[in-house]
Specification:
8 helices; 10 strands; single chain; alpha+beta; 8-stranded mixed beta sheet; two-stranded antiparallel sheet
Length: about 325
């Protein structure tokens, strides 16, 4: 299969981010697309628990610092059951009393059927964030039920920089306004968001959790909250199956139809059409020696219609000798 080339970063509106996002979209939709280095993930929550203690608490979000989860729970009609997971590798501090994130592994998330809310991420070693996200959700629900991935109160520098400079900067509404910005495949900002650090996490999750060509990120929503704080929503959807190819043309204007299981031609690839019955031959059972009433009646009827007319002399044609 030949693929159209993806433009280089220098020719795209949002540079390297958009270029990376376009590749993620192609890899997700086309199993034959070359260059994908994201392998299927088999990391489990048990694997993560070997090095970190995971705290699991069931219950509905409702605390003050989880207001965004509660808000989206209403918007998406999520009913639960809810589970909160949290873990960390322990904290180290610098001379100013600030947490050293260079060696920190931390995770906090909320899970409900169809939704994963990631509230805090720091990773310095171990499995990738996309693998942790998949393992956490998969520990509670089947991975094929995942439809929404949220990042709450985003502080990742790469992602924040893009959103502030290219989305919020173009909006003149007051900072206190709650606004949603929706982006779908085909838009440059969609690909650029997919190519940010947090977008790459979800794109890698899709590539690592599902067979390529079956699911992709179908929408990205930026939830602008108080002032310039925001959250991100990535919707995951199935890729519609391609329609069957048309019948291939054969010489003479005929078309080759698919065959059924027994090799006979079929209109829909299933059972072959029934053979047409030939029309009855009216002379098939004709008996020339038959002298029944039907024959005598036909003979009399035919004879009664014969009328002998007197011959008239033929008029000569002009010019005839």
């Amino acid at each position: 299969m030949v693929f159209a080339p993806i433009p280089g970063p220098e020719t795209l509106l949002y540079g390297e981010r958009e270029h990376r996002g376009r590749w993620f979209e192609r890899w997700a939709k086309n199993p034959a697309a070359p260059g994908c280095k994201v392998a299927r993930s088999d990391v489990t929550i048990a694997d993560i628990g070997e090095s970190l203690t995971i705290d699991r608490k069931p219950g509905t979000p409702g605390a003050r610092d989880d207001e965004e989860v509660a808000h989206q729970m209403v918007q998406l009609h999520l009913e639960g059951p809810w589970v909160r997971h949290s873990m960390d590798s322990g904290y180290s501090f610098n001379d100013e009393g600030e947490v050293l994130t260079e060696t920190l592994n931390e995770w906090k998330s909320y899970i409900a059927p169809s939704a994963l809310f990631i509230a805090s991420i720091y990773r310095s070693s171990g499995p990738y964030v996309s693998q942790i996200a998949q393992a956490m959700y998969q520990s509670e629900n089947r991975i094929d039920t995942l439809k929404h991935v949220f990042f709450l109160d985003v502080i990742n520098e790469d992602t924040v920089e893009f959103v502030l400079d290219n989305i919020f900067a173009e909006d003149r509404r007051p900072d206190g306004s709650r606004v949603e910005y929706h982006f779908v495949p085909g838009q440059s900002k969609f690909y650029a968001l997919l190519g940010t650090k947090l977008g790459s996490v979800v794109a890698s999750l899709v590539l690592g959790a599902y067979p390529r060509g079956t699911r992709h990120v179908s929408q990205i929503v930026v939830h602008r909250e108080v002032q310039r704080c925001f959250g991100l929503q990535f919707d995951i959807d199935t890729i519609p199956a391609s329609p069957p190819p048309p019948y291939s043309a054969l010489p003479g204007g005929k078309h080759k139809r698919p065959r059924g299981g027994d090799g006979n031609e079929s209109d829909d690839g299933g059972e072959p059409p029934k053979k047409r019955r030939k029309s009855a031959n009216p002379n098939r059972n004709y008996d020339p020696s038959y002298q029944g009433p039907a024959r005598r009646t036909r003979g009399q009827a035919a004879a009664s219609k014969i009328v002998k007319l007197p011959l008239r002399p033929r008029k000569p044609t002009e010019g005839a000798l």
